Amino acid sequence: MDANRITQNLKERFAAPLREFYQRRIIFWHDEDREFETMLDELDIPGVTIVKLTGTNNFAVKKLLSYC
Asked: What whole-number distance in Å separates Cα of residue 35 and Cα of residue 61?
């Protein structure tokens, strides 16, 4: 996959209007081979918060997803 294509696709998905009764959009990314790990640090999409699981922040991320 091309990094520019991924970035554009993510921007389009987050810019799309939410469906009725939806308050937010969450996209989970599983990069098993860690191909795009460095790209994630450079990714900048207005209004989007990027959260990475580090192995020590699992509870904090669960709390964030539960209460936002």
From this structure: 22
**What is the CA angle 51-66-33, rounded to 5?**
35
Q: pTM of the predicted model, to two decimals?
A: 0.73
Give domain limits for the chain: 3-67
Handedness of CA 15, 50, 27, 24 (dihedral sign): negative
Low-confidence ranges of the chain (pLDDT < 50): none
Contact 41, 2 (CB under 8 A): no
Q: What is the pLDDT of residue 61?
A: 93
CA-to-CA dists, residue 16 to 10, 53, 57, angstroms: 10, 26, 29
DSSP H helix total and E strand total for the chain: 3, 0
